[in-house]
Design goal:
Bound molecules: iron/sulfur cluster
Number of strands: 2
Number of helices: 0
Strand content: 15-25%
Structural class: mainly beta
Distance between the termini: 23 Å
Length: about 60
Amino acid sequence: MRTLWNIGLCAVCRHVKVVKSAKGSAFVLCTLAKTNPRFKKYPSLPVIECIGYEGKNLSDEKTD
Ligand code: SF4
């Protein structure tokens, strides 16, 4: 099972979207891939370096 720590930069990037399958698996999707072919839709993890990385504003995170 992957955790925030072993997916690398995507864990704290504003361009990430976590997609869950019907079977409960979770996939890391890079939303930059929609508009820029330099990015893979599903990046190889962990991502250690990335020119598209932009940090999330953690104060915008929902706390349910
Ligand atoms: S821009 Fe880079 S760090 Fe951000 S989600 Fe995409 S692959 Fe991950």
